[in-house]
Amino acid sequence: MPELKTVILFFITALAEIIGCYLPYLWLREGKSILLLIPAALSLGIFAWLLTLHPAAAAAGRVYAAYGGVYICMAILWLWAIEGIRPSTWDILGSSVALLGMAIIMFAPRAT
């Protein structure tokens, strides 16, 4: 079950980062309120805190590398769910490869 917890935590972390970056995008590119920067900053703070909760926190580089794979997948899901753009076959394939990379990095047996 620790693997499932790790993957769920990665997805929540990615969501916090995407929200924290999307809100300033709405302000800068879509002319929305500058007040969006407040929840954006909070979301990015939560994102940074969530990264500290991941297993193997002593190996931060490994966590960040594996997180990148989940971020790619979450960004494609965001594209579909929030921006209304259906992912292409290539988007799905690329996301799948990124998730496989995350799994290899995080769950491969290691000497302690």
- Portion of residues within helices: over 70%
**N/C terminus separation:** 20 Å
Strand content: under 5%
**Class by SSE composition:** mainly alpha
Number of strands: 0
Pfam family, one: UPF0060
Keywords: Cell membrane, Membrane, Transmembrane, Transmembrane helix
Transmembrane segments: 7-28, 34-52, 64-82, 88-108
Protein name: YnfA family protein
Q: Would you mind describing this structure in some detail?
A:
- This protein is mainly α and 112 residues long.
- The protein has one domain (2-107).
- The chain is built from 4 helices and no strands.
- α1 (2-30) packs across α3 (60-81) and α3 packs antiparallel against α4 (89-107).
- The longest helix has 29 residues, at 2-30.
- The chain starts with a helix and ends in a 5-residue tail after the last helix.
Can you lay out the helices and strands and say which pair or pack?
Elements: H1 2-30, H2 37-51, H3 60-81, H4 89-107
Transmembrane segments: 7-28, 34-52, 64-82, 88-108
Organism: Zhongshania guokunii
Pfam families: UPF0060
